[in-house]
Design brief:
three-stranded antiparallel β-sheet; alpha+beta
Amino acid sequence: MKWKIDDIPVFVAVVEQGGISAAADVLGQPKSTVSTTLARLEHALGLRLVDRNSRNLRVTEEGEVFYRQSLLILDQVREADAAAAGLSAAPSGRVVAAMPPAFTQEVVAPHIATFQARWPKLELDLVLTTQGVELLRDQVDLAVVVGPMVDSELVSRVLVAGPLAWVTSPAYAASHDLTGGTDSIRPHVRICEKRYGRPRMPVRVDGAPTHIDLSTGISHVNSPLVAREAVANGAGVSALPRLYMRESLASGRLVEVFRNVTFDLDASVLSVVYPHRRLLSPRLRVFVDFLEEVCRNHADR
């Protein structure tokens, strides 16, 4: 390795402060020292990390990649320092995570205060989106995603895995005959999540594998909470993850129907994923542990 690790904090400061002068002020170093350090690092790497002139500084594509790796290096250096000193240093810094809106609202949000009390030096930056994997490369540390992961570039840890169930409101159930197979179900399904709106959604009728068409003639929405509220207020029957129905079923606001038409056990899977080349820093590790804890507690309720 030709470059010096001591140059990394200077490069990170230049990127985060948006210029050499601002980085010099933050670091308490002369502007000339910061400029020389940056030039030395670029020469050692054989890469142009930033394009700069008298007015502006722009991070190059190579610089963006090296910046992300630099943050990981600094995380690992801090962890190694703490271990070498025999300290159990509290994790600090910012955790940027992309998570589905429904999961964040129903499962995570009620416990954020607990996380903050437990790890006061950590800041959460939660990006609510259903496109978590697309953000992993450039913008977030980790993501919670729906469905099984097959990307070999990612480490995947399952948080929740469970079946779907057919549900409706008590009033709708009382006024309709909700028995039979897929042909009986189909006229009652008026809304469902987009991810289940397939022409051949696999199900089992009395244990025998078959499928149901949930792609046409149905309103689709990318939130299980919206589908849940719709059927609770009379919009027919829908297939929903049990994760988001526990309280509604327990209170009688929703009732389960068509129990003989079931889904595979992994029909609803939520996983936390991150690039396999990325070692989990202390700040990320405690957040992943927190997600696993709140999911276990939610399932046990």
